[in-house]
Design brief:
Layout: H1 2-8, H2 14-24, H3 26-66, H4 71-89, H5 98-104, H6 110-116, H7 119-134, H8 142-157, H9 164-184, H10 187-198, H11 204-225, H12 245-270, H13 274-282, H14 284-301, H15 311-319, H16 328-341, H17 349-364, H18 372-388, H19 391-402, H20 408-425, H21 430-450
Helix pairs in contact: 3-7, 3-8, 3-9, 3-11, 4-7, 4-14, 5-21, 7-8, 8-9, 9-10, 9-11, 10-11, 10-19, 12-16, 12-17, 12-18, 12-20, 12-21, 13-14, 14-16, 15-17, 16-17, 17-18, 18-19, 18-20, 19-20
Amino acid sequence: MLHRVKSAFSPDSPMVKRMRRAWFSPRTWVRRVVLWGGALCVGIAAVLFAIASERANDYFHNLLALSPWFPFLVTPLGLAAVAWVTQRFFPGSQGSGIPQTIAALNMHDDVTRNEVLSLKIVAGKILLTVLAIFSGASVGREGPTVQVGASIMHAFGQFGSFRRFEIDRGLILAGGAAGVAAAFNTPLAGVVFAIEEMSRSFESRTSGTVLTGVIIAGVLSLAVLGDYVYFGRTSASLGTDQSWIAVLACGAVGGLAGGIFSQLLIVTTRSIPGSFGKIRRERPVLFAALCGLLLAMIGFASGGTTFGTGYHEAKSILEGSDYLPETFGVLKLFATLVSYVSGIPGGVFAPSLAVGAGLGLNLAEYLPYAPVGAVIVLGMVAYFAGVVQAPITAFVIVMEMTDNHDMVLPLMATSLLASATSRIICRKPLYKALAESFLEKSEAAARQRGG
């Protein structure tokens, strides 16, 4: 017995060798420092991005309060300027950033991957998304933060002697997950998002890297921004009686609406028929200006409520502290669609949650036996799940953002129902479809460079 113990701890034993590699190998510590440093930088970037986006949203609405005609000048000019700078200086930063990050996981060409994951993209994504929000575009920062986080971790990985598998899977996934965790202050959602949406699988070799990135970025966000809940706390809950009809109603309506939005986004991103499609192909800056004019018209019809991220509108719906038009949900949906199609950087996470809150408020009028707050939360998770078709991510994000654990089962059931309903309209998940389209274009460009 004593002999076996001594042999196990002898200098040449496998266990001692593994411990030596784990604790005393310079290469191992370089990798750890790179991972920790990258995660800290992701957290810093996410916090600065959040502060800048919030300021830009507030500035626009302050100017809007001076005159409802203000967006008819600023929004078209702003979107045109953002589109021009994007095309000229930051190609690859358009749109949400999540499809680009998913596509990067499947890219085998370093040049192509660096076009969508680089420190240049980090600067452009943050700057242009903030300018888009200041211009009144219906976009969010959460999706772009995924690309920002993945780009930062990818850049750090190139200095840490990481194997290609670790760069492709572990660091990029960790960066994207850390971005979600820091953007929403929802660490669990960051991990789930990496598993369900970005990789559609979970490799044991990348799990520790993802968790480390999420923890470090989340702790930094918590230290700077405090222990806040994204949409505030709500104590709404559902009983076991007829209130559960709200789950079916929200799941069906939210799922259908999310599926319609996703299908429209996929179709219009690939091609737009007629003269508008020609303008988009040949004169993208003019097309962005026309989209800005349409956004100004939608915003005017909504009383100015569809401009920006939708964060304040969704929060006011949950708290019942402000009046919003009954058409807010539908108009916000179209404003988000127009903003994305314009070709500017910006995500759909926060706007989608605002759309869901608006639809939930509409449904609450027809479900008087269910608490209004509960129906609104179910509307948020239903529409969001319908858009992304990632039901676990959707219900975890909404649960953490509202700090309402009493609604776990209704949220889960609604999310699953909405995701299944969405597939009736949109057969392929939004980000997967956009990533495949982006990957095809990138591979075609790579072939042209090589040939």
